[in-house]
């Protein structure tokens, strides 16, 4: 794992921590933000509360993050990194026989992130924190789609083109929306809705993948 992936995307950090002591402070701030987002939501999140929960000076927050949005973006990127680390470990331990098995595993790991990662279900990978911002960053769905395309090429020999890129992006956004619906229906995730999410995404991809 690269140093950046431990803390979030470079665009979200004012500076990268060099010393381990600084790195530990950044990790505490991200952990604190995750817990607070889970407890009070993004709108009520504040840099003051993050500093207090992380037991750091408020100046330390602004040393690395411009505002609470940049901190949430870094947290979302950390979640994306963790998601793909978990998915890669699962594929290495038990390689899927085909892309359908890969899709089912990808949705299952996404569901597990909802269940275990504080703040994950609230953030939705930063794709709706401030959609009206003119310089909005790439959404979590876009990043996930890019990495899935790379995985399709590496593991199943399915090459990428513009049409495939659009197809995978639609599949990712659809899967994310259906998983969100499953957790609105049941805080632990409605099992029938999760199964339906896998069926819908696989059916859609099955009509378009070679």
Detail the topology: elements first, then pairings:
Layout: H1 20-40, H2 47-54, H3 58-64, H4 68-93, H5 99-116, H6 120-123, H7 140-156, H8 162-185, H9 191-206
Helix pairs in contact: 1-2, 1-4, 2-3, 4-5, 4-7, 5-8, 5-9, 7-8, 8-9
Keywords: DNA-binding, Transcription, Transcription regulation
Organism: Glycomyces algeriensis
Pfam family, one: TetR_N
Task: Describe the overall structure.
Pfam families: TetR_C_22, TetR_N. This is TetR family transcriptional regulator. InterPro entries: DNA-bd_HTH_TetR-type_CS, Homeodomain-like_sf, HTH-type_TetR-like_transc_reg, HTH_TetR, TetR_C_22. It comes from Glycomyces algeriensis. By secondary structure, the protein is mostly helical. Helix content is 67%, strand content 0%. The chain is built from nine helices and no strands. It has helices at 20-40, 47-54, 58-64, 68-93, 99-116, 120-123, 140-156, 162-185, 191-206. α7 packs across α8 (162-185). Mean pLDDT is 82; it is low at 1-11 and 128-134.
């Amino acid at each position: 794992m690269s140093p950046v992936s431990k803390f979030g995307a470079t665009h979200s950090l004012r500076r990268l921590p060099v010393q381990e002591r600084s790195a530990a402070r950044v990790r505490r701030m991200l952990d604190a933000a995750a817990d607070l987002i889970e407890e009070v939501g993004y709108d009520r999140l504040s840099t003051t509360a993050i500093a207090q929960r992380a037991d750091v000076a408020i100046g330390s927050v602004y040393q690395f993050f411009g505002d609470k949005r940049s901190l949430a973006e870094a947290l979302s990127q950390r979640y994306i990194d963790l998601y793909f680390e978990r998915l890669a470990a699962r594929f290495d331990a038990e390689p899927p026989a085909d892309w359908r098995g890969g899709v089912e595993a990808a949705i299952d790991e996404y569901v597990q992130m909802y269940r275990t990662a504080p703040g994950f279900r609230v953030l939705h990978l930063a794709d709706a924190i401030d959609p009206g911002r003119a310089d909005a960053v790439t959404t979590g769905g876009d990043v996930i789609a890019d990495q899935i395309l790379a995985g399709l090429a590496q593991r199943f020999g399915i090459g990428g083109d513009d049409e495939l890129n659009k197809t995978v992006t639609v599949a990712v956004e659809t899967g994310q929306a259906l998983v969100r619906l499953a957790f609105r229906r049941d805080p632990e995730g409605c099992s029938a809705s999760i199964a339906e999410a896998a069926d819908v995404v696989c059916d859609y991809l099955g009509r378009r993948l070679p």
